[in-house]
Each structure stands twice: as structure tokens, then as C-alpha cells.
# Entry
Amino acid sequence: MAGVPAADLVIRNARVYTLSPAQPWAGAVACRGGQIAWTGPDRGTGHEEAADWAAAARQAGGEVINAGGRVVLPGFIDSHNHVRLGSDTDCAQLTGARSVAELQARITDWLTAHPGADWIEGEGLDYPALRPGPDSLDGAAGGRPVFLFDYSGHAVWVNRAAMQRLGVGAGTGRLPFGVVERDARGEPTGLLTSFATLGLAGDGHQALAAVLPWGSPDRRYQRLQRSLAMAIRCGITTITEPQSGLDDLPLYQRAQDDGSLRGRLIAALFHPPGASRDLLDRFDAARRRYAGDRLRVAPVKLYIDDVIERHTAALFEPYADAPHTSGDTFYDPDEFADLVGELDARRFQVLIHAIGDRGVHIALNALEHARRVNGPRDSRHQLVHIELLASRDLHRFAKLGVIACMQPRHCAADVGGPEWRAAVGERRWPRAWPVASLHQAGAPLAFSSDWNVAEMDPLTGIYTALTRRDLAGGEPFAPAQTIGLQVAIAAYTAGSAYASFRERDLGRITPGRAADLIAVSPDPFGMAPEQIRDCHVDLTIAAGQVCHRTC
# Structure
């Protein structure tokens, strides 16, 4: 035991995948003061040191964990996770409902459990069910206003009682939190579009919170707590919340103060289309105030386009099933380039929601403009989603140092389903969610879940990245874009650490880095890619503290 300091925590009998090129595998890890103190073998030559660390830890009152041969990885880093959304047990859960009749049944069941509800709120509405008129749910709703979020958060459906409560009249084209869709006769269809860009943060969110229980501070905090707890169970030790308002920051601080935030949270502040540039001064003040290790405000989130399923993402060519449109952007390209240039000059990292191939192209042009007017720097700006990419833009990511923040789960048929594929058309499918192409072209990759659009579990995302299949094991979609297990794990750990400027202290299991560790079983390295959907996290350690354990 000579020369070995006392450790707080030692993990032995493990298969430790360190992601360090110098020592890719180890058998044991020792942690001290929230950091990794040592990694090394647990059998064979040199294994005696592991026993020394364990003995010193026991003598000092530390803990020694027998991993039982499990694979130990760095804690997952989710680069795009809406922890302030979803996880709302006061909402009717609509995921999987495929018809108006199923929606009615879900709402009837929810009202049985919530007989005194003033509003009916629901989340997870799938696109096939998003076809009802404003009167379709009146029988089930019993005269109550209905407000249903679609699964992406980009649109909501309301009935006539809700429209009356929200002030939607004959001439209302837009609410502070959404655009009123109308049919050929000019009548509201019950659909509010652009909700993600208007209603999820800032003034629109506050306007909605004034009338809808969903937006109250208590409900928002309960959602945040449940999402943070789920993240720890999924092995996620660092999260980037990609679309926060200034009014969300006290909730994050509260979570840190009361212990609900067990890992790390990076908040990206949302600058909505049309917002005043003066808002950036307030963002800068928030960045200075929240600059800790556990809670940090750093990037700014922008949108260039919307979503393919609603034909609102910007494409170079018309939609296959709606040839009258190729979508649109939220900004004139020159205006967008000026905004990105100003953010870059203020040394903000910029996260750009860019989905269609034309939207991605315009976003890359804006980042190139920023580099030209401000000079090159280590900015690590990100394009998020990249659901369709033009071949001519493939190599621009590496050239400009732009990170591709991808959500591999989105490509599967049970998430990005028939509506997406019909809208894009089969000819363009090989360019859909081009993870392998971007990796091969040298683009830095950062993976994420986009909770609650898809499941939070990174292992589910890794399964999809390796197979391009849905959870039922169906036919792979654009299988040439599959990647290997090591690439996928790196994108969820070291790659995401790099994307958040934390590569020196997160994302790998090497001495001096944070003791953010997870244990996974069964061994994903010892099974076919299709079996990885059955893997689970048995142990989560954040900053050297055991936060979740089933083993």
C-alpha cells in the first residue's frame, strides 16, 4: 500500500473502456476528490496496484465496488436534451395513439383520473393522429379546453374551447406562442405551428404560462426534476439544455441547490426569430453569473428552419409529397449571417437548429461569414439535427470546425417515420441523417437524445446509430450511414465533451478528469449491434458520487 493515497471510491473487476488512445482498456479505476486518480489492470502484470488502492480506500472509509465484469464507460454527455420538457405526469400521455378515436380514449381515461381539471393538456401526439378538426375531441373533453403538444414540440393542437380561452378570433393570425393555421375557407384548423420557436422560451413562453397550467413554475420545476432523475438512471452525467429562457435559470439554480442536479447542466439561451439584439446583453450578463462547474450558461440557440414533417424545413428542391413548396427559413440569409456574426464577435458558441439541406447550407454560410469578418477562432459552433445534407456541404464541417450534433434515434421508422420519408422522397433518402458520411469527412460528432422527441436513453441511440433500425428490429433506413460501436460511444462521451469545451476534464477515463463513470450490462462489445437495445446502465457515478445503482 506504500505510496498509494486513500481513495473515496475504487471500482474493480471491470472492463473499463477509457477512450484513451494510450490505454484503451483497464480493469480498475480509483477516484479521489471527485476526480479519477488512477486506472490500471485488475489481473495479470501490475494488478497488485489495484489491490493496494482498494485496501487504502477501505482503511480510509471509502467504498470498493465489484463491477462483476461489467463494462465501465465515461458518463454519457447528452448534447441536446430538453430536460425542461416532457416528464409531465399531469399531462395525458398520447405517444402511440394513431387516430382521433385513440386520442379520445386517452383523454377519457385521463379525465377519469383528473376529474377537476380546468384544462386538458397532453404530450407526445404523433403526426398521424395530428389530423383532427377543432371539434373532434369535444365529446371526450366535456367542454373543457384542450391543448396537445405534438411529439416534436414544434406544433400543438387546440379545440374551440381552447381557442376561445386563448383569444383566437376571426382575424387572429398569430399568438405570442404559435401561428394559427387556417384551412382553404380561412377557418382555424386547430393547429398552432411554430410553437418551438415562439412558445418554448422567452416572451411567448411567459404569455402561455399566464393562461395554461403547464407553464406554471411548479409544473416546470417538477418536469425538470423528473428529467434530471431520468438522466442519471440513463447514465447521463452532463446535459446541454438547448433552448432555455432567462426565466429558466433560477429553476436550474434551485435544482443545484436542493441536490436534484446531480451531474452537470449547460444551458443554451434561446434567441427567437425577431427578438431584439438588446437581448444579447442580458445573455452576456447571465453567462457571467452562471459560470460554475455544475451549472453553466454558455451557448446561444438559433433556428434557421423548422421541421420536415410539416413541410417547414428549408429544402433545395420541392417536397416529394407537396411539390408546391420547398419550405422556408426564419431569416433572410444575409440577416441570419449578420446575427451569427454578432454572436461570434461576442464570443458566444452558437447552436443552430438546421434540418433541411437548404437550411443547413444557409447556416454553414452564416458560420463561414462569421469566420471571415471576425477571424478564425476555436468557436466550436454546432449545427443541430442535419436531417438532410447536400453533398457539396459535407466537407465544410471539418473545414470550418463546425460540430455536427446528431440524434441517431431520429432516423428510425418509429420516430422519423412515414411522414418524414414521404415528404423527402426516396431519391433523397441516402442523404438522410448522414452520420457515417460526416464522420468519414472529418466532422466532429456529438450525439444526443433530443428528449422528449425521442427516448432519453443513450444506449437506445447507440443501438440506432449502429443499425438504423426501429426498436422492433425492422428494415434499416439508409444503412450505408451506420457507424461502429466505438465511434458511437465516442460521440456520446469524448465528442460531446469536446463540443462543450470540456474535453480536458470530461469524456474519457484518465487520471485528472472528473470521476463521471457508468457501468453497463450486458457487454455491448460482446454482442451483435441488434442486441444493444437490451443493454442497460447498472451504475452511475457523477463527480465521484454514486447516484444510481442496481448492481
Q: What stands out?
A: Residues 468 and 476 are 5 Å apart (CA to CA). The chain has a mean pLDDT of 94. The longest strand covers residues 236-244. The two ends are 28 Å apart (CA to CA).
